[in-house]
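Bug report (template v2)

What were you trying to do?
Predict the complex of my protein with adenosine-5'-triphosphate.

What happened?
Run completed; filing so the output is reviewed.

Input:
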Amino acid sequence: MEGQEQLMLVMGNITKRFPGIVANDHVNFELRKGEIHTLLGENGAGKSTLMNVLDGIYYPDEGEIAIEGKRVNLRSPLDSMKHSIGMIHQNFMLVASLSVIENVVLGLESQGFYIDKKSVAHQIEAIAKKYNFRVDPYAKIWQLSVGEQQRVEIIKTLFKGARILILDEPTAVLTPQESEELFGILREMKSEGKSIIFISHKLNEVMSVSDRITVLRKGRLVGTVDTASITERELAKMMIGRDILFRLERKDIEQGREVLTVEDAQAYNDRGTMALNKLSITVHGGEIMGVAGVAGNGQVELAECITGLRHLVSGHITVEGIDVTNATPCTLASAGVNYIPADRLGVGLVPNLSTVENAMLRKYRQQPMCRGAFIDYGAACTYADGLIEKFDIAVPLKNAPVKVLSGGNMQKLLLAREIEENPRLLIAEHPTRGLDVGATEFVRKTLLEQRDHGVAVLLISEDLDEILMVADRVAVMYEGRIVGIVDAHHVDIAQIGLMMAGAVGVKA
Amino acid sequence: MLRFEKRDKTPVRLRVLVPICSVLLGLLVGSIVMLFARVNPVRVYGAIVKGAFGSAYTFSETLVIAVPLILISAGLCLVYRMKFFNIGAKGQYIIGAICGSYLALFGPATMSRPLLLTLMMLLGTLGGALWAVIPALLKVYWNVNEVIATLLLNYIASYILWFFMYGTWRDPGSHGFPLSKNFALNAQLPRIIAAPSRLHIGLFFGVAAAVIVWIIIRKTRFGYEARVLGENERAARYAGINVVKTVIIGAVISGGLAGLAGIAHTSAVLRVLQLEINSDYGYTAIIAAWLAGLDPLVAIGVSVLLAALEAGGYQIQIVMRVPFGIVGVIESSILFCLLAGEIITHYRVTLTRRLSTPLALDERARGGA
Ligand SMILES: Nc1ncnc2c1ncn2[C@@H]1O[C@H](COP(=O)(O)OP(=O)(O)OP(=O)(O)O)[C@@H](O)[C@H]1O
Ligand SMILES: [Mg+2]
């Protein structure tokens, strides 16, 4: 159909097997010059694997890659860099203690021992200016927000001369505004003839930003379509092979007693500044309280205080009338407090332990897994099997480290583990971040189910749409306090936006 | 071009074959060095093998060295899994030896042998445990780096031994040498085969300790908690694991086993407390634990191997009059090759070439598709 000169990249018959699973099964993929091409697929469909093959991290068991018509053999990220491929991974690969400049030149062969910081700084600023954003080349990575760090990653790849840019779920960690800015950058690159591979689970983004879409399902290619010729609904169907509900049914149920009360809570964050500023909030049984706010306004610290992972300087927390201020996680567990943290591999799961060992993490002290000082791993295995079956988690090997699960399946495992404990209070932090539409629907449905069973749910999310879809009330957080609480059914989105920006404080 | 890819699981075949090949390769490297030193490698290796395994006696002497290594490395396998990097086994070994020897030297002379020995072993274990608990407390309460703390405590322990050996514990009849008086028969841990072999019942302690630690790691709640803690402290806290308690128990077990090794070796093999009580086993055991992949049962085998090198090494030094440095060269080339072999067991190494799968790519590149 099209001449080869227009093709930037062709991947043919790529097959990559992992123990227990074929992550890519004879996948064909092509990328034109100057296009934004989305890779779409359920969690565990093999998107990251395919891109890791392109980035030289994995070597395919079968298949070939050609760039601009020439076959290439990509054995390492350095090889890929030489063929002008740059990848921005799902989890960033920056050195937190180094400056932007140092991170940008890291691993660059052409750079000798001596780094000419001034000239690199100029080049960085020039790149940033071209795409209409700003970054301080001398800033240390840890001082930057997630969005800024992502830009450093982009600069890093551009600095190395990338013409094929791969972004693995770049928007999962961004606010809607930040995402829009990112799309601006991507469109600018496209107009310069660079080719971009974009991975996202957010269908609206995919529809608005991409030229073409390639869909994978369970490691196989489903097809490549022009964005203009397809609807969101059709896409979702292509992806998961069935129709999907975009509306959730919510029952009207009676609101229960107060389950969680937080009064005048004050706590520091890791950097030692006050993160919670006399914060008070109440959540009832049978209610989902959404907490909206721009990241870094104390949401994480609030969750950690309630789950016993962070010390309260002053104030009180009670769960079902019992004072649990600064109680141990153990006490809180028996009080029925469960937590789905945003940082899955950092707090929720133990990356190097197996799925079974992760599934039992909150249960190993109880029958039937605990037999005196011993653990009955057989029972643990049965328990894990139950979770896997009930929550439909794709686990290729139960005894392989949990870190090889795809992002979405890790999240499902975490959710399953916490829900299975029959919580009284469930704290969910960005529970659908990085999940495919099917899994997202599943998680939201599960949260609503929990609410219907009388559980108090505290849903912390930056995704306003999500909050409005499932929450009963919305609390807006700004600089460590709740600046307003509104009924989720009658909201003025503009007003919430203003409150999130700290412009107004409304008490309802 | 070589390529490395992390394995998810190592086939058992490799786990056995690779170390064997590594040792052979290490021997090869060692012999090249020997050729430069104008020593006949075949004769040296022959002497080492003979010195380590040549007869029942030499093999039993190898085991004499292996016993403390087995005991210490078992404990290290546990604490290293919880990422408590105890490198102070040397100090714990010394303190164990001192504590146990106290009873041997100054305990009631009339006490029955089994009772006295039991108490000595207990006291030695306790001493070693105490010496490991200090850095554990420093770590959990004041966040003091345990590598530095345990290392420094090694020096302190050495000087405490000095203090006693040049002080009140010195035997007046030792002509000024820093030796205690010989242990009475009551205070000598029994040897298990006929003289001159010095192999003692500590061997059973060692094997039992390795098996028990293996069970602790694999089968018990504490072992699970230790592994979770070592892999992810924040998740451990969320799971309600008591970090302080876990680290301290781990330190007690590891320090206790090192202390037991110290007193068992002193009481059974040396039968006297002196400055040189082979406390460097505390360092060798670190190597044994890591080479064993922190599996205490594997560590038994590794300990015997390291012990054989050491025992055979004495032999060539004495018999062949080769400089002891050669032993060091052999030891380190074997270790080096074993460590390199680790890579093969943990990574899939492939020689990459162009893949030969017939492809649709050609048609596609031609603009077909
Ligand atoms: N290193 C590995 N070892 C074993 N299995 C792996 C490894 N990496 C990925 N897998 C498996 O391969 C499958 C595809 O994973 P991949 O990460 O490519 O999915 P994905 O499409 O990126 O999913 P997500 O949207 O959740 O990020 C998963 O089932 C995963 O468990
Ligand atoms: Mg992925």
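What did the reviewer find?
The first strand of chain B starts at residue 2 and ends at 6. The beta strands of chain B are 2-6, 347-351.
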